[in-house]
Give the backbone structure.
Amino acid sequence: MSQAAELTMEKHYDPIGSRIGMWLFLFTEFLLFGGLFLLYAIYLNKYPEEFHYGSSQLDQFVGAMNTIILLTSSLTMVLAVGALQRDRRKLSIFFLVTTFTFGAAFLINKYFEWGHKIELGIYPGSQELTQHPQGEIVFYGLYYAMTGLHGLHVIIGMVIMLFLLYFLLKKSHRALSIKSNQIQNLNGKRLLLSDETGKKLWKSQEITSEVTGMDVVVKGVFTEEQLKSSEVKLENSGLYWHLVDIIWIFLFPLFYLVSM
Amino acid sequence: MVHQNEHQHTQHIVGYGTYIMVWLALLMLTALTVTVAGMNFKNFAIVIAILIAGLKSILVMNYFMHLKFEPPIFRTMVYITVFTLAIIIGLTFTDISFR
């Protein structure tokens, strides 16, 4: 039994290593969008007038609003990390929910913005758009591809936040894990939980041969261990969210401001 | 390497105030980029916009992403990535401008 307890306690954390891993992943994202930015630069160079016209047709106000929303969501995300570092779990949950709400607000804006354009018949391959000059077709193609891919990243970031909320709200943890080789002779027997005087607290059902492992789970507590592992997860999710923010920092002037 | 036993926390803790100052700076730079775009700088407008966006990214990376407080290896990796992208962009433009 004590051996099993030691095994579960021996969880190894390497926060620096895990952050390096996260950054390596972020570099691939950076290069993915970098390629698209390169494409944008080449076509801006080729069709400057059409790009300026296309950009003037986008709503600068909505673009600026979304920039402010994402910048603020980055702030609340980093505050969530800061709160958890100070062991303030509930404050961290509050900031995480706020960040999620900002992400949703961003997507709602995008939905109406895209919806308006699609209503006007301007979307890749539409009858209306194919009548427009080649440069404008390319501009809107890049607009939909790049803001669409970015929007997908916002959605992924929000899904990750839901997982984090689950980890931060889950008030139970595995105190003890018993592997199959330690319980092979328990077939047909029962487990008993008693206090130090031997008074019975709880008795299990008969253990069948189908049971190949056991966990002792403590409910109603949020342990130091969980706090530490949530902190690493939250930090890395924060890094992802800030990358999404950085990409928008570049998308905003390129699509909304080149016209002015 | 820092041992977990010596430090309870996984990372350098930054004050909330610093984050709020960085956020305010980011908002001001956003206002600046919109204002500058309104002025007629012609071809320089895009260069200025990219420079401001670059400055904003540096702020986000250094403070929100804690790059400033990470071991030097993190910055080295960032430089390598930016350098790689710069080579790709540079070579592509030398190609298309001499066609």
Remarks:
- Chain B touches chain A through 47 residues (CB under 8 Å).
- The CA atoms of residues 19 and 63 of chain B lie 7 Å apart.
- Residues 13-65 of chain B form one domain.
